From TrEMBL, chain A:
Listed InterPro entries: Spore_Ger, UPF0353/GerABKA_families
Basic residues bias (residue ranges): 10-19
Family of the protein in this entry: Belongs to the GerABKA family.
Protein name per Swiss-Prot or TrEMBL: Spore germination protein
UniProtKB/TrEMBL annotation, chain B:
Compartmental location: Membrane
Recorded topology in the membrane: Multi-pass membrane protein
GO cellular component: membrane
UniProt family annotation: Belongs to the amino acid-polyamine-organocation (APC) superfamily. Spore germination protein (SGP) (TC 2.A.3.9) family.
An example Gene Ontology biological process: spore germination
Keywords from the UniProt entry: Germination, Membrane, Transmembrane, Transmembrane helix, Transport
Name of the featured protein: Endospore germination permease
Automatic annotation (TrEMBL), chain C:
Localisation: Membrane
InterPro entries: GerAC_N, Spore_GerAC-like, Spore_GerAC-like_C, Spore_GerAC_C_sf
Membrane topology, from the record: Lipid-anchor
Spore germination GerAC-like C-terminal domain sequence ranges: 199-364
GO biological-process terms attached to the record: spore germination
Annotated signal peptide: 1-19
Identification of the protein by name: Ger(X)C family spore germination protein
Family listed: Belongs to the GerABKC lipoprotein family.
Ranges for domain Spore germination protein N-terminal: 23-191
Coiled-coil portions: none
């Protein structure tokens, strides 16, 4: 859904028709022949020397026909092939010319362009001498992870099941929360080579059809080799990819995803990726955590306000430090000024160099900690905390106050629940530091004004990214800056533009009902 | 015909736009100006000025109601003639350019005097243009959001000013009629300067989401403007002794300078800088409106080209010359004169003209039916 | 088009970046002038003193004191710059000390602080002190058991003012008092006798010239008249021996005020202003030397205290009228409510005030008599 605006906003460019000629020697209309040998030869030709391709020749016991089962070794469930395909075929069964196997999903295919992808996705194909069609058997079974606690978004009181890499499982996890027939799935396939299954999940009677159409349009226009991860999809369909802010929320938590679906939003599942997209995602949704709803509303409100404060501390504190020590020192109270002066007097660097140095060090420590295995990871903390923190001050390279500022900034950024938002915050922090180093608090203010101007112009799938504060929607504040008691949230947020906004009935209002 | 769909401005945004444009730096200047012209009785002038402004803005809304789906430019083209629309486009574009230029130069001067003394004025001015472009290029919808957010983020201002409460003395307010009624009445037209900007309604109107609320909204906006002026004026009048008032430029900033907080001292620089959000309302909307008129004149839907030209023009011009504060005051006097004619006086004959035209055409059609 | 515009904007931003940093000066490279002293010199100019902190761990002494002769404060700043390590800067000035000689002898001495008001980045909140003595003495004064001079001065002014024993006139307040026709200026006064000490309040006349000094005790009564006294003012008063049945040296009683309400009602008749001052004090008894029974004689004791306090007020007002100064601001009331009459004497309010008829009425009520009988 796109607003054809008067002033021509950023145009969403449709994919250009630049499909290269298919390299595979496979024309779309080519059909399987009725000669088994010919078919197997063609298979070998098409797959080349794929080492995991397995061709099992056999004679069907009941009919005596020559046949072959073709499948890829690692992608199929050996149990199913052995017990449910080979055993019935080789053993005694009723024989009325039907190839009876004990597999749930079966079908007939005639075209090579259908058969080959089926094999590639883990199905096994049964060719029979004298038949010009192939039996496709749903024997998929690839290496899988069991369902675990989500890594990135730990929760205290929420469920401990996270999404996994298989879309069917993820669908099941969502269905478990919403066994309702209005829960709809729009399935799409993306990727020239990857054939990634993408599924848009929504409540059909609640979610806004315009947004659905826009979302479907954007996804179906994609023309890429493969989508490895949800993050890639997010970047490809975002409204403004040049912005530092994430405009679509990625979550690993089924409960969080469902909570968004119920608010009238859309969730996009991507096969092979444990993250799901939430769209449209307003700015404030990056400050919410699923735990907010399971803790008491007063403490949840406090924590939410704390997060917004942390956001500002995190983007602005080092810049403010630079501004007050190099430009606007009249802001510092006299006693503090004398104390800072004493520290700064022995430091050879200007506050800007000092701040950039420490912030970069912090970023390095953080990045080092992320990738290292847990036992080694702790060493990073020690090196960072003791060696750098302590020693650098004692050596007189960096002032005490700067270390405090950096530590405070880091803590503040850890409070933010969304990883992508933290990344944005880190970038903005550096730009503000540069602005502050050139023009002091005025530079910070210009930076903030640009930030505000950018934030309010952003859209997430055609809905305002800054929704609930620009444009102001006071009714949405119940679940953005604060977390109102649940019984007060009778309507779905306006920001999601739901077509049906009645969320809960007034039957049992609050407390003891008096 | 809904030519300007999808650029809708909500009622709150509209109120914020008009309120922001009118208040902006008036908040800094109005107490001294009123006091100079009418003593503490300036408060009465302010109230009278508000009434006149409310009437004038209602007239503007009445005009626009006759042609709800177009701007005043479309309206003039349709009802009067092509040349009238074009002439109006040129005049309004020039007017808002002038309006915005004064706003940005004034802000530059304040920053130069109070925050960045050694930085050349043109650099400050250029810096202020960066957020201007970021906001203005996206059109009225984003402008509306910017307006409401700026107002919202500036609500702390009155509370900060209340920190000077312990320096105030209500006795300074009296006698109200120190020099009789005449200076008070004479000062009324001078208050118009601080209300200029409601004329933007003539261009915003087709974008309004709820046009039926336009009258209410503009009265609210004027009312809020009056309240903010009343607040700062009363506070200045009880803060400064009457003789001292004559000695101080920009009394609002002077008051800020007396605030002493435990954790932060000499806060005026910080507050002036944060006040830029409101200040910016005195030039971002006008520049956008100006480039909108220019785009209309050339029949283009995209105003950004004109916005860029305007900004580059201002940057280049500023490299050579940025007016001083006194020149800015002189310019604002000119703006007051132009604005009074354009915003207060002109709409009256225009409304009469349209009413007459409507009556004539009604008569004609009735006659034809007969 | 879009791309060129983008590039253009980027290069412009880059140009600004390169051109930035005009106002940048790192804090440790600044010599903050924390205390400014202004004295008159012999050649119709001023002798200025200053204290700047030294930001170095190695320096034994944490401050540096400087003295120059100049014609204006701004000029003295340039001269100071030659002495100081960093760039000299008055934006953090905390205290301004005027010598008594300056206030007494130099007409229009207030003009010298104009730079604080005119320069938008200078503060107008420095606290003001009049120093009775040679400024050199103050700036060289260094007591080993005191913090550095600026902190010492701030502390002394703040604490004396919070006990209502002196006033904390800031530059901004002096500015107001100077320009207000209905009031005369006053500022804290200090001197050095063995140790630096607060002396009380210096009263200036309409032109800013030194007129009189109020002692610490008298200042308390001034603050009560102004309604700026703190919540707890200590008053130690003698009671008449007839009441206490004790010798006079044992008849003292001490009160701590809880709330002081002052009402001033101006009127004008027969070419003379008249002010009815009504002061209501509610106080707690904190100390008494005699054995008087407060339960029985509360009304009488209250009345005796009121009489005593009224006497003090009248003495104080007589002192004001004798020097033709009005630090309380009676003129503000006169202006607000008797404007027609006030307009005539606006330019010489001090004289009109010294002829005014001022009637003081004091009411004392005890809120608490303490925890023993």
């Amino acid at each position: 859904m796109k607003f054809p605006s008067l002033f021509g906003q950023r145009k969403y460019r449709p994919a250009k028709g630049r499909k290269p000629a298919a390299t595979a020697p496979l024309s779309s209309g080519e059909e399987a022949s009725d000669a088994l040998e010919e078919n197997l030869g063609r298979i070998r030709e098409l797959f080349g020397d794929a080492s995991d391709l397995n061709v099992r020749r056999l004679r069907i016991r009941s009919t005596g026909e020559e046949a072959a089962v073709v499948y890829l070794e690692g992608l199929t469930d050996k149990n199913a092939i052995n017990n449910n395909v080979l055993k019935p075929l080789l053993g005694e069964t009723d024989s009325e010319g039907v190839l009876s196997v004990t597999i749930g999903r079966v079908g007939w295919l005639t075209k090579w362009s259908d058969i080959v992808p089926a094999i590639l996705k883990g199905k096994s194909v049964l060719f029979v001498e004298g038949r010009a069609e192939a039996r496709v058997l749903g024997t998929e079974g690839w290496p899988q992870r069991s369902i675990e606690d989500p890594q990135l978004e730990a929760s205290l009181k929420g469920a401990h099941q996270g999404f996994v890499e298989t879309i069917e499982q993820n669908v099941a996890l969502i269905r478990r929360y919403l066994p309702h027939r209005q829960l709809k799935f729009a399935n799409l396939t993306v990727g020239r080579r990857g054939d990634t299954r993408v599924s848009i999940v929504y409540l059909a009677d609640v979610a806004n059809p315009e947004i659905l159409k826009e979302l479907e349009d954007r996804i179906s226009q994609l023309d890429v080799d493969v989508i490895i991860n949800t993050g890639e999809l997010a970047e490809l369909i975002e409204d403004n990819p040049y912005s530092p802010f994430p405009q679509l929320l990625v979550t690993e938590r089924p409960d969080a995803a469902v909570s968004q679906i119920v608010q009238g939003r859309f969730v996009v599942l991507v096969d092979r990726s444990p993250g799901v997209l939430v769209a449209p995602a307003p700015f404030t949704s990056f400050f919410q955590s699923i735990d907010d709803y399971s803790t008491r509303w007063s403490i949840a409100t406090f924590i939410r306000l704390l997060r917004f404060m942390a956001f500002f501390v995190s983007i602005g504190l080092p810049a403010f430090y630079i501004a007050v020590t190099s430009f606007n020192f009249e802001l510092i109270p006299i006693k503090l000024l004398l104390a800072i002066g004493e520290y700064r007097g022995s430091v050879p660097f200007s506050p800007f160099v000092e701040a950039i140095f420490m912030e970069l060090t912090l970023e390095m420590i953080r990045e080092a900690g992320v990738r290292l295995p847990a036992p080694v990871g702790q060493t990073v903390g020690i090196v960072g905390g003791i060696v750098i923190g302590q020693a650098i001050v004692q050596a007189g390279l960096i002032s005490n106050l700067m270390v405090i500022v950096v530590a405070f900034t880091a803590i503040a950024s850890f409070i933010l629940p969304n990883f992508d938002m933290v990344a944005a915050v880190r970038l903005i922090r550096f730009s503000l530091m540069i602005a502050a180093a050139m023009f002091g608090i005025f530079g910070i203010m210009i930076g903030m004004m640009v930030l505000i101007g950018h934030l309010i112009a952003l859209e997430s799938l055609g809905t305002p990214f800054a929704s609930s504060f620009a444009p102001i929607r006071f009714s949405d504040w119940k679940d953005t800056f604060i977390r109102a008691p649940l019984w007060k949230m009778g309507r779905r947020p306006e920001g999601s533009r739901a077509v049906q906004s009645d969320r809960q009935g007034p039957t049992r209002p609050e407390g003891d009902g008096r | 015909m809904k030519k300007y769909a999808f650029n809708e401005i909500t009622t709150i945004q509209y109120i914020s736009l008009i309120n922001g444009m009118t208040v902006s730096f008036g908040f800094i200047e109005i107490p001294a100006d009123l006091h100079k012209k009418a003593g503490t009785g300036g408060l009465i002038s302010l109230l009278l000025g508000t009434l006149v402004t409310m009437a004038a803005s209602l007239i503007v809304v009445q005009i626009m109601r006759r042609f709800p789906n177009g701007t005043i430019l479309d309206m003039l083209t349709r009802r009067v003639g092509k040349w009238a629309g074009r002439l109006a486009a040129v005049v309004i574009a020039a007017y808002f350019l002038f309006y915005g230029y004064i706003g940005i130069v004034y802000s530059t001067r304040v920053i130069k005097a109070r925050v960045l003394q050694e930085t050349p004025a043109y650099i400050t001015l250029f810096l202020l243009l960066i957020p201007t472009y970021v906001v203005a290029r996206n059109g009225f919808r984003v402008l509306g959001r910017y307006a409401e957010l700026s107002i919202w983020l500036s609500l702390w201002i009155p509370f900060v000013f209340l920190l000077v409460w312990r320096h105030t003395n209500w006795n300074y307010l009296f006698p109200l009629l120190e020099r009789g009624w005449l200076p008070i009445l004479k000062a009324v037209p001078d208050t118009f300067f601080y209300f200029l900007g409601f004329f933007a309604t003539t261009l915003f109107y087709p974008f309004l989401q709820k046009k039926e609320k336009a009258s209410f909204a503009i009265l609210t906006a004027n009312g809020l403007t009056m309240l903010s002026y009343l607040f700062i004026t009363i506070l200045s009048f009880i803060f400064f002794s009457p003789e001292e008032m004559k000695e101080v430029n920009q009394p609002s900033i002077y008051m800020l300078k007396t605030i002493e907080l435990r954790f932060i001292e000499q806060v005026e620089g910080l507050f002036i800088v944060m006040y830029m959000l409101i200040f910016s309302m005195s030039w971002i909307p006008p520049f956008l409106l100006s480039s909108f008129c220019a785009a209309w004149l050339f029949g283009r839907a995209d105003h950004r080209l004109f916005l860029r030209v305007l900004m580059i023009g201002i940057v280049l011009f500023s490299c050579f010359y940025v007016p001083g504060l006194n020149t800015t005051y002189a310019l604002s006097d000119k703006l007051t004169k132009v604005g009074t004619v354009l915003e207060y006086a002109l709409p009256v004959p225009l409304l009469l003209f349209f009413m007459l035209q409507a009556r004539i055409s009604r008569k004609r059609s009735r006659r034809r039916r007969l | 088009m879009r791309r060129t515009a983008f590039k253009l904007a980027l290069s412009l931003i880059a140009a600004v970046c390169l051109a930035g940093c005009y106002d940048k000066v790192d804090m440790e490279d600044v010599s903050f002038s924390l205390v400014v002293g202004i004295d008159a010199n012999e050649e119709n100019g001023i002798r200025t003193f200053t204290t700047i902190p030294v930001f170095s761990k190695n320096a034994k002494k944490k401050t540096q004191e400087l003295k120059v002769e100049a014609r204006t404060l701004r000029e003295s700043r340039d001269k100071f710059d030659a002495f100081s390590i960093g760039s000299f800067n008055g934006r953090k000035a905390q205290v301004i000390v005027f010598s008594k000689r300056l206030v007494q002898q130099v007409p229009d001495w207030f003009r010298y602080v104009d730079v604080f008001f005119r320069d938008g980045r200078n503060p107008i909140t420095p606290k003001l002190v009049m120093f009775d003595g040679d400024l050199e003495q103050l700036f060289r004064y260094q007591s080993p058991d005191q913090p550095m001079l600026p902190l010492m001065l701030i502390g002394m002014i703040e604490s004396a003012s919070s006990r209502s024993e002196s006033v904390k006139t800031t530059l901004q307040e002096l500015h107001r008092q100077m320009y207000d026709p209905g009031q005369t200026p006053y500022l804290a006064e200090m001197s050095i006798e063995q140790d630096a000490k607060m002396k009380g309040t210096a009263l200036l006349d309409r032109k800013g010239k030194y007129a009189a000094t109020l002692s610490l005790r008298e200042t308390t009564y001034l603050r009560m008249l102004q309604m700026t006294s703190g919540p707890a003012v200590n008053l130690t008063l003698p009671l008449p021996s007839s009441l206490t049945k004790a010798p006079p040296d044992k008849s003292w009683i001490s009160l701590v005020t809880e709330r002081v309400r002052t009402r001033i009602k101006p009127s004008y008749s027969g070419g003379r202003f008249r002010f009815d001052v009504r002061i209501r004090i509610s106080a707690s008894v904190i100390e008494k030397l005699s054995h008087i029974d407060l339960d029985k004689l509360q009304k009488q004791v209250e009345a005796a205290c009121a009489r005593e306090i009224r006497g003090k007020f009248e003495e104080l007002i007589d002192k004001f009228q004798a020097s033709a100064v009005d630090p309380v601001g009676f003129g503000i009331y006169a202006r607000a409510y008797e404007y027609a009459a006030f307009r005539g004497v606006k330019d010489d309010w001090g004289k009109a005030f010294s002829e005014a008829d001022i009637r003081v009425k004091v009411l004392v009520s005890f809120a608490d008599e303490g925890s023993v009988k």
